[in-house]
Design goal:
Low-confidence stretches: none
Helix content: 25-40%
Shape: globular
Mean pLDDT: 93
Number of domains: 2
Number of strands: 17
Catalytic activity: uridine(54) in tRNA + S-adenosyl-L-methionine = 5-methyluridine(54) in tRNA + S-adenosyl-L-homocysteine + H(+); uridine(341) in tmRNA + S-adenosyl-L-methionine = 5-methyluridine(341) in tmRNA + S-adenosyl-L-homocysteine + H(+)
Strand order of the largest sheet: 1-16-17-15-14-11-12-13
CATH topology of the largest domain: Rossmann fold
CATH architecture of the largest domain: 3-Layer(aba) Sandwich
InterPro entries: MeTrfase_TrmA_AS, MeTrfase_TrmA_CS, SAM-dependent_MTases_sf, TrmA_MeTrfase, U5_MeTrfase_fam
Largest sheet: 8 strands, mixed
GO molecular function, one term: tRNA (uracil(54)-C5)-methyltransferase activity, S-adenosyl methionine-dependent
Keywords: Methyltransferase, S-adenosyl-L-methionine, Transferase, tRNA processing
Family: Belongs to the class I-like SAM-binding methyltransferase superfamily. RNA M5U methyltransferase family. TrmA subfamily.
Radius of gyration: 22 Å
Number of helices: 10
Distance between the termini: 44 Å
Order of helices and strands: HEEEEHHEEHEEEEHEHEHEHEHEHEE
């Protein structure tokens, strides 16, 4: 099925197939019936990237089938994209086609939006951007009422701002997130909210203990979970994400959370006292009483050393964008822990991809 246009009547059937497949895949580790969190059937994706097809003095949004990069098909609608993306697409395209300066050598356009309707447009070129381009882009920005950002090789021109502000209502409170262009953000806002609420429900009764989180990004999970614990220590390797997380901590008034710029592998070395880190000189890791560790690793899953390290914790909250690698890790983790909760999040409808979550408790 082409993802730019989907038949929403098929949604429940494709979700049921995913759930059946994952239930069978996880059967070796749990007989729990999964908690299933469906996506909105359409307009669920908050970010999108389109190649720009240049032909006959005109540019159009285009996509390619995998392995067929010389056979684009023009995109006139994007059913899976947010309402805001679909609103902006024709307006932007018309403006670009009315300006040779904006159109010439444009090869990619990116949209970043939020559930609240904030938006950012990035135009990416095979040319250096000059003052003439900037003047045209500023006029475009004023016309659309949306921040525009220009990129080319070794060049980034921010006309207004390079981020959007997301606001998520979670369990009666609104959390605010700065989401920076080019950094990781959850693509499906409603599923993101469901994952946060599920994670919070897994952490009830932990107020007298501490939380450790690896791969914390911009604080997506960390900030709403902070009130469930006495103290929270979180790590992230991306400098951009760490900076955004620090701003998000301040914006949400969280005072019991500290972010460290360390990879999961580096933190494992630190907690095992393999080598010291200057970034940890003001932190006494032994003073924390970690009852729970939260991990949301990249698609490759947890490396062997990190997997062994987290197995020491009483409770492991493991959210994964790749159930296959999570299952590989569960082969080790279930030697010491049992699966207490199992969740399926339909982050990417109409594809084979699914996010999964497990709460593991020490045997």
């Amino acid at each position: 099925m082409a993802l730019h246009r989907v038949n929403t009547d098929d949604y429940q059937q494709q979700l049921d197939q995913k759930v059946a497949r994952l239930r069978e895949a996880y059967a070796s580790y749990t007989n729990l019936e999964p908690e299933v969190f469906p996506s909105p059937p359409s307009h669920y994706r908050l970010r999108a990237e389109f190649k720009m097809w240049q032909e006959g003095g005109r540019v159009d949004y285009a996509m390619y089938k995998q392995g067929e990069y010389k056979k684009p098909f023009v995109i006139e609608e994007f059913t899976v994209g947010s309402e805001r993306i679909n609103e902006l697409m024709p307006l932007l395209l018309e403006a670009i086609n009315n300006s040779e300066i904006l159109r010439k050598r444009l090869f990619c356009t990116e949209f970043l939006t939020t559930l609240g309707g904030d938006a950012l447009i990035t135009l990416i070129y095979h040319k250096q951007l000059d003052e003439i381009w900037e003047a045209e882009a500023r006029a475009l920005q004023e016309q659309l009422g949306v921040p525009v950002l220009g990129r080319s090789r070794k060049q980034k021109i921010v006309l207004d701002r390079d981020y959007v502000i997301e606001k998520l209502d979670i369990d009666g409170r609104t959390y605010e997130y700065k989401q920076v262009e080019g950094s990781f953000t959850q693509p499906n806002g409603e599923i993101c909210r469901s994952m946060i609420q599920w994670a919070r429900s897994c952490c009830e009764g932990s107020k007298e203990t501490d939380l450790l989180e690896l791969y914390c990004g911009n604080g997506n999970f960390t900030i709403p979970l902070a009130e469930k614990f006495r103290n929270v220590l979180a790590t992230e390797i991306s400098k951009v994400s760490v900076n955004a997380a620090q701003e998000n901590i301040a914006a949400n008034g969280v005072e019991n959370l500290h972010i460290l710029r360390l990879s999961a592998e580096e933190f494992t070395q630190a907690i095992d006292k393999v080598r010291p880190f200057r970034r940890l000189k003001d932190f006494d890791l032994d003073s924390y009483d970690f009852s729970t560790i939260l991990v949301d690793p990249p698609r490759a899953g947890l490396d062997t050393d990190t997997c062994a390290m987290i197995a020491r914790f009483p409770r492991i909250l493991y959210i994964s964008c790749n159930p296959e690698t999570q299952l590989e890790n569960l082969a080790e983790l279930t030697k010491t822990h049992k699966v207490e909760r199992f969740a399926i999040f339909d982050q990417f409808p109409y594809t084979d991809h699914t996010e999964s979550g497990v709460l593991l408790v020490k045997k």
